[in-house]
Amino acid sequence: MAQIVLKDLVKKFGAQTAVNGVNLHVRDGEFLIMVGPSGCGKTTTLNMISGLERPTSGEVVIGEQVVNDLEPGERDLGMVFQDLALFPHLSVYENIAFGMRVKKLADAEIDRRVRAAAEAMHIEKLLAKRPAQCSGGESQRVALARTIVTNPSVFLMDEPLSSLDAKLRVDMRTELKRLHARLKSTFVYVTHDQAEAMTMADRIVVMSGGVVEQVGGPLDIYRRPATQFVAGFFGTPTMNFLAGEIAARAGGLEFASPNLRQPLADGLPASLAGRKVVLGVRSEHVEVGHGTGQGRVQLIEPLGDGTLVFFEFGGDAPLVAKVDAETALRPGDNLTFGFNPAGYHVFDAQSGARLN
Amino acid sequence: MTAVLEASRRQTAAAGARNVRRQRLRVAVRHAILIGWTIVILFPIYWMIATSFKEKHEWVAWPPHWLPHDFTIKNYTQIFVFDVAEKGVAREATEQPFNVWGPLADSLLICIVSALVALLLGTFLAYTISRFNVGGKHFRHAILMIRMVPPIVIAIPLLMYYAIMIPLAAETVLGTRLILFDTRVGVSLIYIATTLPFVIWMMLTFIEEVPYTLEHAARMMGAGRIYTLRRVVLPLVASGMVVTFLFVFILNWAEFLLALTLTHPDVVTLPVLLNKFQSASEGRLFGPQAAIGTIITIPVVILGILIQKHLIKGFSFGTIRK
Amino acid sequence: MRPPWRRLGAWLAQERVFRLIPFVAVETIFVLVIIIPFLLTVYISFLKWRANRPFEQAYLSGFENYQQVLTDPGFWAALGRTFYFAGAAVALELVIGFVLAMLVARTVRGRGLYITILLVPMMIVPVVVGYNFTMIYIDSGPLNQLLAPFLEAFGIDPRVRWLSDPIAAQWAVILADVWQWTSLTFLIFLSGFSALPKQLINAARVMGATAWQIFWRVELPLLRPAIVIAVVIRSMEALKIFDPVVLLTAGGPGTSTQSIAFYLWEQVWVFNKFSFGAAASIVLLVIFATLIFFGIYLLVRQSATVARRIGP
């Protein structure tokens, strides 16, 4: 059980900066997920927490200690790698026992703890087998057993589910959540899959280009994305974005784009008038059937519990609306549309920062 | 309609039968050619083995005897005996004795030691190249280029180096006359240098098959560098090391040019010995030569067949499946 | 908790030092055994070093040695001959190896056995190959026995001394090389054939192409990388031919089978013309270096093509 604090963490590889000033506080016992596209620096940050990489500058604090100078093996961590890193020439039993053999624990003690971990992960029957003989899911559990057997205070995971097929992935997600609930340890998890992040995390850290874009709970991130990047990263289908500017109008401000004008809610400072912005609206907040906009349906995608309607309205890109499954709309139909003002996200066109 | 159907059925059946015959003929021809080449391959080897068991009067008999009429192991016993004074296998007073123990020992010693040293050094270097990128991006290619130089181009420099330069240098600097010419150490050194590129290249492919995350995982669990090497990396490249060792051993065993240039008369390797028989005054001593040839060849062929699978993998980018 | 000697600093220092040790060791060997001799040779190539005089009496004489080498008919004859040997041998090896690979690729029964046997010649010590063929070529050898019916029909004494005739001796050397190294081209081509993507060939069949058309237009172009690799690798090796020459003919009759390696060896070892040999080595090195660079350039280009096709 330990909290982790990252202070101004920077990592440079020669001329390239992979991590550019990350400040983070991971609470004791929480399931924190770092998410972002490839190259955003999430794995490098994880490696600095684990000790496999040394920070160029900044501090890593685990518990009460600054651990920059500690070896990975001395930080009381457990780590699961993307390719699982199971030793192919050792049996499952010896794989799990590896860390304890390094520390030269007594055989009886090792045996007890290996069997306890195997029982916890339901892999008792595999102990005599080699990793090559285990299926994807079984190998996952062996890797997990290997980490829990040393009772670490922090678990680090680097995209552990990315090599599994879709169904197995969903099952393992639940398994990991259960494990976290039972052990009550701190989990730091890295993934590029936003769905994984949304379903499993207590808190999400969104990274891009070596910096942290936003930190918050899944719903916060979904409902109030701090930047345009975060807004576009989460949610399927991707949020609709309209480029335009803020114009002053009698009684308040409105969003003006070549094809569309929408009044904006109160609460936005008048000084924003004239600013070039991007308006973001999620598909579930695009209302079809009433409003001032005119469009023509391009494509219908039935989802089962709803239907996606792709339509163009004369702007640069088509918009997506999520409507009832029973809709009668077909490609080629004309429609009217409007936006639910509660679902507006206004971002500065240049910096991407949220304005409302 | 049925008439047309019937006619087409008969036609297809007839064509099918023709195709089967043609196919069988093709297969037969294929095998015939392959077997033919197989005979071409096996024949010289067989001839050598047969000759090694023939008496002198059969060596160059006409018409040649395909099977020894007087089977004998005298050729083998002769070369294994220390001194030969038998009639019919006379030798010049200045010739070396024809016994094979010395060269056999020299060959074995030089080949095994050179291969071992090259293996150890090369494996370590390959490890550091793979994990730490020592030497830069093109180091491994640069190393391989050393191997491409024709041996004659280094043989001559080495001859002068070993025989003259080093003694001179040693004499002036250290005061002792140190000669590398005609020494086992000298030959081993150059064998090591010329086979290192192969060791490095082969071990690189084997080491890179071991994912680096395994070493990370071990490090996460508290294992030190040496422990990780010993318990994680080494077991996984052990078979690769064996293959590399055997490959290098075979290369050293077959090496002729450098051995010929750099040794006389003390150190004699087996290939050089084989060549010496040519200078006998009684015409070529084909029998003992055949015996030596057989001794040289058979172990290597067996070893070669053993590591054949890996040789295939190396040259075929992994596409051939036997 | 953690012993002082395991401090992170110590680890790093270990790693930084540790990883350079093998590099230094290997480079030292290379420098000692290859670079320095090479430099000394360059030096010697500028000396006039009379055969049986001690080294101390040699003196610098500029490019005289190089002049000698470049105008020496023996040198150029041997070089040209070597290219001739290599050319003929490699051509035969390519064709035979290609045919063999094609046949084996399509055989099912006994494939493994054929491959094992067909690769044996590569593993025979080259000196022994030379010796074997001596046995076969001598005037009372099996070759003549097999050819006896033909020869006698033409009134020729079947006990032909192949190795005493310059042209026949040359071909004897070439054929010995072919016998041994066809295995290598066979291996390279076999891997090429095994790597042919079946789907491409099936697509062509569906489109109605005949077997011949498929061979010419689909398989052969796909085999081009393998062909280039085989040509480059074998050519570079064939130019170094030495062992069979020594055993079969010792360069004879006369000088008709002297490869360049043999010629150089003879100059230094038998005639003790050290400075001549040194200069000749350098000239040969330059020639070979150009060929090697060219060969590597071709090889790398073709390997990249193959790797891309096969995928990770």
List the topology elements:
The complex is a heterotrimer of chains A (356), B (322) and C (312).
Chain A: E1 4-13, E2 16-26, E3 31-35, H1 42-50, E4 57-62, E5 65-66, E6 77-80, H2 92-102, H3 107-120, H4 136-148, E7 154-158, H5 166-183, E8 186-191, H6 194-200, E9 203-208, E10 211-216, H7 218-223, H8 228-233, E11 240-249, E12 252-257, E13 260-263, E14 276-281, E15 286-302, E16 307-312, E17 319-323, E18 334-339, E19 344-348
Parallel strand pairs in A: 3-8, 3-9, 6-7, 7-8
Antiparallel strand pairs in A: 1-2, 1-4, 4-5, 9-10, 11-12, 11-14, 12-13, 14-19, 15-16, 15-18, 16-17
Helix pairs in contact in A: 2-3, 2-4, 3-4
Chain B: H1 2-52, H2 56-59, H3 74-80, H4 101-132, H5 139-147, H6 151-173, H7 184-208, H8 212-220, H9 225-254, H10 257-262, H11 270-276, H12 286-306, H13 308-316
Chain C: H1 8-18, H2 21-45, E1 47-48, E2 59-60, H3 64-70, H4 73-106, H5 111-118, H6 120-123, H7 126-137, H8 142-153, H9 166-194, H10 198-206, H11 211-238, H12 243-248, H13 260-270, H14 274-310
Antiparallel strand pairs in C: 1-2
